[in-house]
Amino acid sequence: MAVVSDIAANYVCPRRVFNGMLARKTSEGRVLAMVFAGCAVTFVGQWPRLARDAHFENTDIYPLLGGALMGWMLIAPLLLYLIAYISHAACILIKARVTAHDARLALFWAFLASSPLMLLYGLTAGFIGPGRALDMVGLVWCGVFLWFWIVNLRVSHGDRK
Predict the structure, then answer these.
(1) Whole-structure pTM value
(2) Distance from C-alpha of 153 to C-alpha of 139, rounded to nearest angstrom
């Protein structure tokens, strides 16, 4: 239950939540669980859109669910690890004091903390469909995700204010 309360608190004060994570010395297993939990929530968020697509295309939903499952639970974690590695390399280039573990934690926590908005995105895609509302929810998710990620990297660097 602490993860859910941390996600809610992250929308109020992400700096304080991430400082707490760094102080607890989060293990690599917990970091891995974060990326898989974020991917699982995002996968579940895709169900309404996939159901809509299957209905309008008059196809079976199970191949769509299988493809989304493979994409979100197998491929997306690998891509997120690659992005975390690239962000760590970028931090090294700009001489930021961010360890590889902290770079992974920053990215994966930002992804997990912003995943409730992916549920909203999926609901919007499923019930309303393509259009301005879906674009706005996607834009809000991108903004919140980037905000969390940047704050987390700054806190990892030592900007604890």
Answers:
(1) 0.91
(2) 21
Joined together, the tokens standing for residue 85 give 């590695």
Helix (H), strand (E), coil (C) string for the chain? CHHHHHHHHHCCCHHHHHHHHHHCCCCHHHHHHHHHHHHHHHHHHCHHHHHHHHHHHCCCHHHHHHHHHHHHHHHHHHHHHHHHHHHHHHHHHCCCCCCHHHHHHHHHHHHHHCHHHHHHHHHHHHHCCCCHHHHHHHHHHHHHHHHHHHHHHHHHHCCCC
> Residue 139 to residues 36, 120, 134, 146: CA-CA distances in angstroms?
23, 12, 9, 11
pLDDT tens string 51-61: 999 999 999 99
Q: What is the pLDDT of residue 126?
A: 94
Question: In this predicted structure, what is the pLDDT of residue 159?
Answer: 64
Cα–Cα dist 130/85, whole Å:
33
